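Subject: Predicted fold for Amino acid permease, 485 residues

User T.R. writes:
Posting the sequence so we have a shared reference for the thread.
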Amino acid sequence: MNDLMRKKDLATVVAQATPLKRTMRTFDLTMLGIGAIIGTGIFVLTGKGALTAGPALSVSFLLAAICCGFAGLCYAEFASMAPVSGSAYSYAYLAFGELLAFVIGWDLILEYALQAATVSAGWSGYFTKLLQGFGINLPVELTAAYGTTPGVTTYFNLPGFVIVLVITWILSTGINQTKRMNDIMVMIKIAIIVLFIVCTVWYVNPAHWKPFSPYGWYTFQPGSTQPMGILPAASIVFFSFIGFDAVSSSAEETVNPNRTLPRGILYSLAVSTVLYIAMTLIMTGIVHYPDFAKFINAPVAGVILATGLNWLAVIVNIGALVGMTTVMLVQLYGQSRICYAMSRDGLFPPLFGEVHKKYLTPFKGTWFFGIATALAGGFININVLFEMVNIGTLSAFIIVSAGILWMRKTQPDAHRGFKAPGVPFTPLIAIVFCFVLIAGLNWETWVRFLIWSGIGIAIYFVYSRKHSALAKNKTSAKAATQTQQ
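User M.O. replies:
I've generated the structure tokens; pasting them so everyone works from the same file.
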């Protein structure tokens, strides 16, 4: 059983050579993080969040940001210690051993795939509406997965399928193309959000903020099975912040990762939090929170309708498309890099670790999961799996935060380009916040999560345990010792 806890050596990991090209700098990483964070949260989840918490949704966003902030400090320290691909998977491998690392990596693959597929469905809706504005109507059967829209017969999400394949092509042809595309789209997205804020802030009616917290921190309304209040809303909008951890997946393509990775993680969280809070205060100030039920799937559009600034609707629609495109790009990027790291460690087949000679990217692995994600978004109604993304990410946050506590104790003298302040309190607070947010998820999510983790454990014992690079190195070393004797 000891082999289940075998760990990587920190010095070996740091010295491990990589064939990936290092071109990412602090600005690129910050844009990568903002690209992953700002998208679905503003353009979709603010509607459901406002109905759950009222104007206090801004507090819910702040709580989710605090959780991510404390976890982000732990990620930043790990990234400065071990600037390698794999994010939480690689950190768990260093701190707790192979089995737990595999389970976390397996869960992160699902997290990234489900989020990208979920966002592709929302992207398809905005894209279809934009085309309709130009008099172009796609066959309704090809605008959403089967059974997605009640009362409407749909079979396949064609726009979502195509955009995922386009993003996969961009990712597979090189990190330079990826970062340029992401940087441009993120700057466009931020500019459109700032334009929305500047144009709509004059329509805020402070009376709509009263009562500010109609449901308190946590309560059940009569006849409802879903909790209401600030904490349940924080569990919902936590989805908005998922993605900053993908920044650490770029470690092997980052210039001076000891400094740039922590900065990219923390800067992107800070900028995104400010924009989220500003947006939610303005939106709940323009539209009274119960009225968000009328346009729950397009809350920003509803707010614009209330102001009468119809010209702004087209611009914001484009911003929504750009915003969700960057989210999918970063999620698919992070997914391919985790698979690359797991393949290099022997836990996944070699296919996923092969680096293209020309593009210097994990080409085959990127296309494999890109096509799988495109098909999932095209055919499957994944709304029921939405919260699995949250529970997978929160589990990873808990492991990374606990890993900082363990590494500070077992390897206190290891080089750290960045040290999380306030340890042990910082990781402990992150862990507590994560468990609080997990408590806001329903029991069906737990069951699905446990089933997926169980499938991963089965794959580990059938394939990964035997093909592990650490296992092979140990066997080779033992054979060499016996030969010498």
